[in-house]
C-alpha cells in the first residue's frame, strides 16, 4: 500500500511540473482495495482495471520503474511508452490492458473468463470498475452474460462517490449499487474499502466461489412462430382435429385470445396481411 501511495504521489508531482502528457487518474485513498483484492489472486489469475488502475497494476507485482516509465511515455515503459497512464499492461503478471472508456473493461473481463472456462482451468478474472460504470449499457450486458454462463469472473466495484467530477447520487437512484448487480443473480457483498484485510477476505470468498462455478447455459423453452426471423408476415395455426387443437401442440396465444377463436383470428390475419 505504501508503494502504491508513493507511486501516485510521484505521478501527481510530475504532472504538476508538466512532465506528463495528457490527463492522469490517481487512486490515492483507494490503495486498500487494489492491494486486498490482489492478495486473493493466484499468479495465473487475470486482472482488468480501469484508467484509475495504477494500484491494481502495482499490486499484481508489476515493476514500478517500468510502470512509471510508461506513464512518462518512455521506450523503457511497459508498453514502450505508447500506452501511457491509462493503459499500464503486463500480461506476464496477469494484468490485461486497462481501458480508458468507462465500462469497457467488463466485456473484456467477461470474454477472458469465458476463455478460462473453455480451457477448463481453475483461473479466474478480477474486473475492477467504478460505481459510475453501472450506468453503462455494455456493463449490464457483460454482467448478464457472466451470470447466465456462470463465468469465473469477480466484479469489484470501487465506490469513491464520484464518476469523474459528478457525485454518484446525482446519476444513480437508490443507495445500493450491489442491488443492481444482484438483479442478475450474482451474489454481492459490501465491504469497507479502507480495510485491506476485509477486502482480501471478501474477495477471497468470491474467488473461491468463482473457481467452483461451471457453465449453466440452458436453452429456452419458448419457440418462435414461423416467419419470426424472415421479416415476412406469415401466420400458421397449430394442427387441429375436429375443431380442437392436437394434443401436445402449442397454440398461438394471440390467436386463441382473439374474438372468434384461433381459426377466426388466423383468417383475419391472413386477410389483413394480403392488403399490404
Secondary structure layout plus pairing:
Blueprint: H1 2-16, H2 31-39, E1 46-48, H3 54-59, H4 64-71, H5 105-119, E2 125-130, H6 137-148, E3 153-158, E4 162-163, E5 166-167, H7 178-182, H8 196-212, E6 240-241, E7 244-245, H9 253-256, H10 261-273
Parallel strand pairs: 1-2, 2-3
Antiparallel strand pairs: 4-5, 6-7
Account of the 3D structure:
With 276 residues, the chain is mainly alpha-helical. The protein folds into two domains: 2-212, 3-Layer(aba) Sandwich (Rossmann fold); 221-276, no CATH class. It contains ten helices and seven strands. It has helices at 2-16, 31-39, 54-59, 64-71, 105-119, 137-148, 178-182, 196-212, 253-256, 261-273, and strands at residues 46-48, 125-130, 153-158, 162-163, 166-167, 240-241, 244-245. It has a three-stranded parallel sheet, sandwiched between helices. The longest helix is centred in the C-terminal third of the chain and has 17 residues, at 196-212.
Amino acid at each position: 500500500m505504501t508503494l502504491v501511495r508513493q507511486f501516485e504521489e510521484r505521478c501527481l508531482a510530475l504532472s504538476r511540473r508538466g512532465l506528463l502528457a495528457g490527463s492522469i487518474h490517481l487512486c490515492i485513498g483507494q490503495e486498500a482495495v487494489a492491494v486486498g483484492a490482489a492478495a486473493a489472486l493466484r499468479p495465473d489469475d487475470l486482472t482488468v482495471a480501469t484508467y484509475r488502475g495504477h494500484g491494481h497494476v502495482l499490486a499484481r507485482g508489476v515493476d514500478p520503474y517500468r510502470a512509471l516509465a510508461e506513464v512518462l511515455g518512455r521506450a523503457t515503459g511497459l508498453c514502450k511508452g505508447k500506452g501511457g497512464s491509462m493503459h499500464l499492461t503486463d500480461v506476464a503478471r496477469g494484468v490485461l490492458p486497462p481501458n480508458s472508456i468507462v465500462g469497457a473493461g467488463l466485456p473484456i473481463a467477461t470474454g477472458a473468463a469465458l476463455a478460462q472456462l473453455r480451457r477448463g482451468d481453475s483461473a479466474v478474472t478480477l474486473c475492477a470498475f467504478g460505481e459510475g460504470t453501472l450506468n453503462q449499457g455494455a456493463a449490464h450486458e457483460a454482467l448478464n452474460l457472466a451470470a447466465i454462463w456462470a463465468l469465473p469472473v469477480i466484479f469489484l466495484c470501487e465506490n469513491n462517490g464520484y464518476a469523474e467530477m459528478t457525485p454518484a447520487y446525482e446519476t444513480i437512484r437508490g443507495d445500493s449499487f450491489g442491488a443492481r448487480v444482484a438483479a442478475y443473480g450474482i451474489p454481492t457483498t459490501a465491504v469497507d474499502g479502507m480495510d485491506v484485510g476485509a477486502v482480501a477476505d471478501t474477495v477471497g470468498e468470491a474467488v473461491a466461489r468463482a473457481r467452483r462455478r461451471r457453465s449453466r447455459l440452458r436453452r429456452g423453452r419458448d419457440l418462435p412462430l414461423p416467419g419470426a426471423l424472415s421479416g415476412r408476415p406469415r401466420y400458421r395455426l397449430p394442427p387441429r382435429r375436429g375443431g380442437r387443437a392436437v394434443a401436445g401442440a402449442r397454440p398461438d396465444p394471440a390467436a386463441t385470445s382473439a374474438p372468434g377463436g384461433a381459426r377466426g383470428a388466423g383468417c383475419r390475419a391472413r386477410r389483413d396481411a394480403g392488403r399490404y
